[in-house]
């Protein structure tokens, strides 16, 4: 896609996202197909990305997905269909960032996609703000598991000082320190750039905030109920790494040094791949546990999946289904 086409698509995308219901209805039934140089008005599907069995179960159990066809690419099944009448393609990527990125890239190459909606579970790093059952729509995500591991007693110390965590007393530790690293963001319209935070598309973030602010969430599953009313939180930052974080001291480190309120193993991979393709995206995280404080039970984990799916569905249904598809 050329830069100009991308700009046209972006402007149109912004217009469409801010459009309200009535316009959405008329767009669903176009009378004419407008052709420009190599772009045309077409049905755009929302790319719905999930990583786990539980997330897929929440989708299938809802009865809202209607299957049209399945497409196999690189060992993943891409399910083409509708979610509550909105055209989507959903894919279960499998876990860890390489699997997530591979599946998102395949989705974007093979289908005409308006943007990526990712939903999945995450651990809370700040129990004052996010507890199990809550859903977070963060405004930025980062890979926080990419390190330069410094030499023992190196002059330049990394932010993570292992000696600070010696038990029962702080002291020296042969592991030394590790410094968080930036990641190279490749994108269609800019030169490659070293970045740490990956911002969620502001137009979709704002649309989600508007669309979802009063949403009621589920609080019980199989007789287990949450201790308090769940809420959708907009804003804050999320951390992604290829390790599952159960350790309280490390969770506190992520909160203090990066201001990250959640941890997962997928969101930043969705973000980086979407940004690299110049695609809109949004991240929706269901809180399943509080890192180092409260582990997830199967029931609570499933409520988190259902709540994240519920928020994702509401958002998907607010996205216009027509847009410019450019070759
Ligand atoms: C979806 O539809 C296709 C084509 O009709 C079919 O081959 C496939 O088995 C269906 N998948 C599911 C999960 O129902
Ligand atoms: C990482 O990127 C940020 C901008 O996102 C920049 O401010 C910072 O200096 C970079 N850090 C390194 C070590 O390159
Ligand atoms: C962390 O986030 C809070 C709330 O958004 C903000 O007030 C604070 O300045 C941030 N701290 C750092 C170190 O970025």
Q: How would you characterize the overall build of this protein?
A:
The protein is of the alpha/beta class and 327 residues long. It has a single domain, classed as Nucleoside phosphorylase domain (Rossmann fold, 3-Layer(aba) Sandwich), CATH 3.40.50.1580. It is built from eight helices and 21 strands. It has helices at residues 3-18, 21-28, 53-62, 97-110, 202-212, 248-258, 267-276, 298-316, and strands spanning 39-43, 45-50, 65-73, 76-83, 86-92, 113-124, 135-137, 140-143, 147-149, 160-161, 177-180, 183-185, 193-195, 198-199, 220-221, 224-225, 232-234, 237-240, 260-264, 280-290, 322-326. Strands 2, 3, 4, 5, 6, 7, 8, 14, 17, 18, 19 and 20 form a twelve-stranded mixed β-sheet that branches. Strands 9-11-10 form a three-stranded antiparallel β-sheet, with no helix packed on it. Strands 1-21 form a two-stranded antiparallel sheet. A hairpin with a 7-residue loop joins strand 12 and strand 13. Helix 3 (53-62) crosses helix 8 (298-316) and helix 4 packs parallel to helix 7. It is globular. The termini are close together. 40% of the residues are buried. The structure holds 2-acetamido-2-deoxy-beta-D-glucopyranose (NAG) (3 copies). One 2-acetamido-2-deoxy-beta-D-glucopyranose binds next to strand 13. This is Nucleoside phosphorylase domain-containing protein. Residues 1-19 form the signal peptide.
